[in-house]
Amino acid sequence: MPQQPRPIVSAPEPAGVARALRRRLALLMLLALLLPHTAAAWLPEGHLATGAIAFDALERHDPEAVAAILRLMQSHPERARFDRDLGDVAGRARGRRTFELMAIWPDLARGGPFDHDDWHYSQVFASSLRHLVPFAFGGAEQAFRRNLASARDPRADDAARAVALCWVMHIVGDMHQPLHAALWISWRFPVSDAGGNWAWVRVSEDAAPERLHWFWDSAGRPGALSRASPEAFVAQLEREHPFEAEPPVPNPEAAFDGWVSHSRHLAREVVYRRGALRPGTTRETAPVLRRDYIEQAQAVDAEQIASAGNRIGALLGGLR
């Protein structure tokens, strides 16, 4: 019997190849992001600083909004936690401390009914593959819009508004940390570096290896942050990055998109240096960071924390 001709299989069209690659990368990313990884941004001192700076900024241009926020916080579902942490602090200091605790509360609420892990980040590829997989992993952007709408809605329940206010402050702070807005994928990190959580570096020859994400959370100086008093740290930030008066943000969604876009730019250009940074894939292979890289990280993180605080203050202007 004559052999039947084999069916001719057409070569995939370029568009089909791109779609297949995007699907494969998306699957790999999903598997990577389902694995446990740190979602906190900044050390506690960083988030506390954004709250204090937001209070100072808002107090200057809209003290009525400060009063409205403090009133709403009396109805927060976890008010007992706030009261315990506030202790016997009174007067203006109590209001300022409340703002600090609001900014960090979503991290303290982990494991409870108000925990939303994927609200802490919205990451896109910082490498050239960002054009093949243009969507973000994480729900920070959607959560920001939803919580801001709830916080600003005078018809909403006061308790819900108080929770939403804390999340708005925290998300803005988180998304000013570049590695909460971007991640890297390459041959060395084929399933991504999970926003620096799977990448290892050292700050000196005798320093222990640390995750790149942790390095940026700590502003490149964990020892200095943990030793400094919160007041001294905030005073330094406000001195180096003075407050610039601005009215309430007219289009907060567009403004937030711009802040996130800038964080992604910083991730690509400063954190990863367009791929020139080559962190270790294990603790044992962690390289020592160059001094100029550490100094640049310290300057960028300080500016980002100060900007986040001032922007939170402007964002909450007009709230009643």
Strand and helix layout:
Elements: H1 14-34, H2 44-61, H3 63-73, H4 79-86, H5 91-108, E1 124-125, H6 140-152, H7 158-174, E2 182-183, E3 200-201, E4 210-211, H8 212-217, H9 222-227, H10 230-240, H11 252-271, H12 291-315
Parallel strand pairs: 1-2
Antiparallel strand pairs: 3-4
Helix pairs in contact: 2-3, 2-5, 2-7, 2-10, 2-12, 5-7, 6-7, 7-12, 10-12, 11-12
Structure in words:
The longest helix is centred in the C-terminal third of the chain and has 25 residues, at 291-315. The strands form 2 sheets. A two-stranded parallel sheet has the order 1-2. The chain has a two-stranded antiparallel ribbon with strand order 3-4. It has one domain: P1 Nuclease (Orthogonal Bundle). The chain contains 12 helices and 4 strands; from the N terminus they run αααααβααβββααααα. The protein has 320 residues and is mainly alpha-helical. It has helices spanning 14-34, 44-61, 63-73, 79-86, 91-108, 140-152, 158-174, 212-217, 222-227, 230-240, 252-271, 291-315, and strands at 124-125, 182-183, 200-201, 210-211. A hairpin with an 8-residue loop joins strand 3 and strand 4 (210-211). Helix 2 packs across helix 3.
The low-confidence parts are 1-13, 31-38
- Could you name the CATH homologous superfamily? P1 Nuclease
Provide mean pLDDT, rounded.
Answer: 86
Question: Helix/strand-derived class?
Answer: mainly alpha
**Helix/strand order:** HHHHHEHHEEEHHHHH
Distance between the termini: 87 Å
Number of strands: 4
Sequence of strands across the biggest β-sheet: 1-2
CATH architecture: Orthogonal Bundle
Q: What is the percent of helical residues?
A: 40-55%
Domain count: the total is 1
The helix count comes to 12
Radius of gyration: 22 Å
CATH class: Mainly Alpha
The shape is globular
The major beta sheet can be summarized as: 2 strands, parallel
Might you state the CATH topology name?
P1 Nuclease
Percent range for β-strand residues: under 5%
